[in-house]
Amino acid sequence: MLTLVWGLNWPVMKLGVSDFAPLGFRTLSMWFGLPVLWLVLRARRVPFAIPRSDWRELLTLSLTNMMIWHVLAILAVQALSSGRAAILGYTMPIFSALWGAALFGERLRARHLGAVAAAAGGVALLLWHEFGTLTGKPVAALGMLVAAAVWGLGTQQMRRTRIAAPTLAIVFWMTFVTTLVMTAATILFERDRWTVPGSATAWAIAYNAVLIFGFAQAIWLIMARNLPPIASSMSVMLIPVLGTVSGAWWLGEQLHWQDGAAIVLVLVAIAAVLIPSRATRL
Question: DSSP readout, 97-110?
Fold first, then answer.
C-alpha cells in the first residue's frame, strides 16, 4: 500500500504544481493532512505528549526526514518529469547504506552491497534517456539528490532515536513543525503566486492530505524506526518504478527498454535485502 500510494503520488504532484505555487501546494496539503493524522492518533488512543528534553532531537529528525525533503522535492517535481524526479529521490537507499557504514559503523554484508549495486544500476538505467534533459536543469536534479541524501541520513537517525514516545506522536509533531516551516517559506517566496486552486490542484491536495500525510508518511516512519535502515529503505525501491510507469500512462512520459531492465534490478535489490538469512530462518 505504501508503494502504491507514494508511487502514484509523483504524477499527482506534477499535476498539482503545474499551475500552482509548489511550496504553497505542499503547505496546503500538510495543513489539511494534520487533522487526518490527529484523528488517527485519537482513534488509536495514542498520547500526543513529547517530553521537553526530547524536542531538540525531534527538531533534528524533522529537519532530516521532512523539512529538506519536502522543500527540495516539490521544487524539483515542477522542473523535472514526475518519473525521473521519483528516480532521483529514491536513490535514498544508496545514501542510507553509505551513511550507515560511514557514521554508524554498520557492516554491510555481501548481499547488501549487491542490493545497493543493483538498485544503483536500476536508477542509472531509468535515467538513461534523461541525461540530456537533466543537463538543462542541473539545479533541480542536484536538489533532488541532496534531498535523497539527507533523507537517507534521516532514516538512519530515525532507527536510532532515543525518544520514548510512540512513533505516531513523533510523526504528528514532526509534521506540525514542518508545516510551520513550509508556511513561512511560501509566505516569504511565493506570495505573489498565490491563486485559488483549480480542480486538478484541489484533487491533488486532497490526495496528499489524506493518503500521504495521513497514511503513507506515518507508515514509512514506523518502518524506519522498527526495521533495519537498509531493509526499510530498500523495500520502497519499487516506488520510482511505479512513479515512472504511472507518469508514462497518465502524463504521456515516454518509456524505453531500460525501464523494464530497471524493474528487474530493483526486484533483485529488494529480495536481497528482505529475504531472511539462513541463520535467521533457523
Answer: HHHHHHHS-----H
